[in-house]
Structure formats: C-alpha cells, structure tokens
Design a protein that fits this description.
single chain; 253 residues; alpha/beta; Rossmann fold; Arc Repressor Mutant, subunit A; 2 domains; five-stranded parallel β-sheet; 11 helices; 5 strands
Length: 253
C-alpha cells in the first residue's frame, strides 16, 4: 500500500509540474504577443517621434510607415491578411489623398482595421468628418507613448473610442448641440476623383462598359479606358466589381 501511495503521489507531482510548464508556456506566448500597428504621416520629424514612442512599448510591432494616403493604401494592398496592421494611426493633412479620404477608402476595403487619427487639429468639422469616415479614435500628436498604448488596447480589446480630453469635450459639445451638424456630404465621391471620372464612375456603377460609355460621352473607348485606369489607381482597386462594392459601401449610388 505504501509503495502504491508513493507512486500515486509521484504521478500527481509529475502531472502538477506538467501543468505548471504548460501554464508558463501559455504565459510566455501571451507576453510575446504584439499589437500590429502602422503610421501614415507625411512629416518625417513626426514619423521619427512616433518611432521613438513605439520603441518604449514592448508589445507593439510597427508593420509599416506611409508618407501619405496613397502610400498607405499601396502598402496595405501588398500585405497578406495575417500581416495587416490591427491599428493604423492616421494624420489628416496630407497632399493628394488626405487622412479622412484614406480612412474612408481603407475602411471599405479592410473593415477589420481600426483607424486612430493622430493630428494637431481639434476643430469640430475634422472631428466629425473623421468619425463619419470610420475613425475609431482621435488623439492629438503630443500624446505620450502610454496614451498611444492605452488607445490601441482600448480599440482592439474593448471596442472603445479613445480620444484626447480636449477632443472628447468638443465631441460632447458637438453631439449636444441643438443645431444638427451635417458637415460635408458623407456620400460624396473622394475629392481626388475628377468631375469627368465621377461621371464615368456613375455609368460604371450602373453596369455600363467602356464602349457604351464612350458612345454616350462621344469620346474614344481608349480615352474611357484611361479614365477607368485612373479611377482604379486612385481608389486602389483592381476590378469593376471592387469599384461597385466600394460605391455601395460608401453610398455613392
């Protein structure tokens, strides 16, 4: 009996230590997990400042940095699904494709990605437009590394909407205003799309092909195809089906 009891106790000890090892491995894997983030910012000084803040945080992996909205969309296009950033910090004032339009397009193509505006601007129109475009949060650029980390955890783990205090106060005043704030037309085409391209886009959304559009507008098929190629490039899509999907998501129709 004594020998059997010792064997049983020894077996229990082995099972206990195995459990401890498994828990340690799980804990190590959990600690090793990193949040995947990216930055879209046209100012090199601000990009370097962001890098320094990220370095302080041990659980953030910088997937890419983009110099403008087009660069951001191009880099996203080249990434496999499991390597996409979970959060993209987005500047607003950028040449060619600004932050709000970038968020609007990217959110339609990558709905799983969270966008946190990182800017020096705190005016009401930009706050409202960024939120309508799909931003999950709105922070001022002077915020510390700790605030950036808290914002990432907030949107990923809790579905929150992190905001700098000054932004939060303005948002509350905006929402509490007796006058309905409309801002820009949220269903408008992106500003980078020309009037001629908008006209062609409307035909495309209604199912017209290049030949029919060229006949309607009295221009060559080649001209229409060049416009369509420009539209694809500006919207960062590769097919008519993607254009139509984007149009419906953004209510361009």
């Amino acid at each position: 009996m004594g020998l059997q009891r010792r064997r049983r106790d020894h077996g229990d000890d082995i099972a206990y230590y195995k459990l401890i090892i498994v828990l340690c491995i799980i804990n190590l894997n959990f600690c090793a997990m990193s949040f995947l983030v990216a930055l879209t910012e046209d100012n090199s000084v601000n990009r370097n400042t962001f890098i320094q803040k990220i370095k302080v945080l041990g659980d953030m992996q910088l997937v890419f940095m983009a110099a403008d909205g087009n660069d951001c969309l191009e880099q996203l296009k080249g990434l496999p699904h499991d390597k996409l950033p979970q959060v993209i910090f987005m500047d607003l004032e950028m040449p060619e494709l600004d932050g709000i339009e970038t968020i609007r397009i990217a959110k339609s193509l990558y709905p799983q990605i969270h966008f946190i505006v990182l800017t020096i601007f705190d005016d009401e129109e930009k706050i409202f437009e960024a939120i309508k475009a799909g931003a999950s949060g709105y922070l001022l650029k002077h915020e510390s590394a700790g605030v950036l980390h808290e914002a990432v955890v907030n949107v990923i783990d809790f579905g929150g909407a992190p905001m700098s205090p000054a932004i939060a106060r303005k948002t509350l005043r905006l929402l509490g205003s007796t006058d309905a704030y409309t801002g820009k037309d949220n269903n408008a085409f992106p500003e980078i799309i020309t009037e001629r391209e908008k006209e062609i886009l409307r035909f495309m959304i209604n199912g017209w092909d290049a030949k029919r559009i060229s006949s309607e507008l009295s221009v060559s098929v080649l001209t229409i195809r060049k416009h369509i190629a420009n539209i694809y490039q500006k919207l960062h899509v590769n097919s008519k089906a993607q254009v139509i999907s984007l149009a419906h998501k953004n209510k361009w129709v």
